[in-house]
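dumping this here before i forget
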Amino acid sequence: MIQHFNFKPLFENNLLPGWAISFYYKQQLYKAEYKKDGKIVWIGEKPLDNDLATVEKMIHELMLFHVYD
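structure:
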């Protein structure tokens, strides 16, 4: 489960898409950029391969809820 999910626009003009995201998963801090097409660009370490699909699905759901509502 993702905890302490944060996001903020990458650009001062909030109309330009792109967000910096950060969150904890399994007590590990992760950072990434969420692009307008839904692509996730990891900054530093990314979740393990066997967790990656699950984490990315949770991120997409959170972004849909918070940004695209």
